[in-house]
Amino acid sequence: MRDRLDEGGMIFESENASDWSRVLSGGLNRGDSVYRQLFDANLTLETERLGGGNGGVFFAAFQNQNGPNGSELIGDIQTYSNIDADGRTQLAAMWFEQRFFDDQLRIKLGKMDANEEFAFPEFAQLFVQSSMGYSPTIFPMPTYPDPATGIELFWQVTESLVLGYGLFDGALAAGVPTGSRGPKTFFDRTGGEFHIAQLEQRWQLDLNELDGRGIIGGWYHTGRFQQFDGDTVTGASGLFLTLDQQVFRESDPTEDWQGVGVFLQYGLADPNVSAFEHHVGAGLAWTVAIPTRDVDVLGFGVSWVRLSGSPGAGFTAPHETSTELFYQCQLTGWMRLVFDLQYIKTPGGHSAAPDALASTIRTIVSF
Question: Is the CB of residue 217 less than 8 Å from the CB of residue 198?
Fold first, then answer.
């Protein structure tokens, strides 16, 4: 029945990700373990296949997250599992997208996750560490577990160049959990507005047809922020860069990607209001690292942050570094296992905190 619905433009997807993590050494609670899970159910409606206008897409997403936050065992500030949250059930997304002028202009309106379109490295998507997904210097970003109401516009300037802009409800910076609320704060401007823009350029190395992608962007939040020294300031801003590059291909260019891809990211923010002043992340993802395992992925990455040195910030160490190694194994068409190991140096930016080694087994089941 779902196949028939898909053909008619009604696509239903659901997935449950569960993490079991254990602190192998160091951290705040050596030897302790924690279990948590995130369930997603998504519905996509394509207007053209449903008999409506061309280029329209409606999307809605339901989320349920529960279980304790794994970072409480380690004391890290970068959040070593990207499904950790405060436990909630919410309508995480409800937006409509329309394309115009032969797909040169794309507009999205509704409740959405900004990180699905902005500041993400493509080859970092399978990592467990949160900072691999987007730079933590973009601290007011409306993303999981708190997407927000907004509008996004994307202009296809050339075949390989795209300019994107997003305007979002900025109430999260004022302590409002936008993920579990509707659009009210977007219209009454509680907590200000979050603006983000980026320029994305794609290319291909002709010799081996290896695709590459680079993004440069910036963000600005109009709300009021308390500085670490106790004063308040209006507005906060930052810059970000990301780079993805295929460096080795094992498959034919017309087939699904198999090979090695690398990524690099950088973020910058004001250390007077942001705990993160600089962020550098880098890594690689190798599909088919083991012969005959055509969709398994081996990944290695490092995420380094320079923490705020402003008076009142409270950090006794200038950096936190997370090093991650994972292997994703496709057991069946509907089940994946991820074996993840992370080493976190000076967790939370505290010089007295013992470095932590933590393992995670992630089970992903698609329905």
Answer: yes
Distance CA 316, CA 352 (A): 8
Whether the pLDDT of residue 282 is over 70: the answer is yes
Q: What is the pLDDT of residue 291?
A: 78
| Closest listed residue to residue 196, CA positions, set 225, 173, 222 | 222
The model's pTM: 0.93
Q: What tokens does 268 get? A: 């910058």
d(CA 37, CA 15): 11
Q: Of the candidates 116, 38, 117, which has an alpha carbon nearest to the alpha carbon of residue 81?
A: 38
For residue 21, with 0-12 CB atoms within 10 Å meaning exposed, 13-18 middle and 19 or more buried, which class applies?
Answer: buried
pLDDT digits 0-9 by tens, 209-220: 899 999 999 999
Nearest to 112 by CA among 67, 153, 150, 70: 150
Alpha carbon of residue 220 to chain centroid:
19
Cβ neighbours, 10 Å, residue 102 = 8
Superfamily grouping for domain 2-366 = Carbohydrate-selective porin OprB (2.40.160.180)
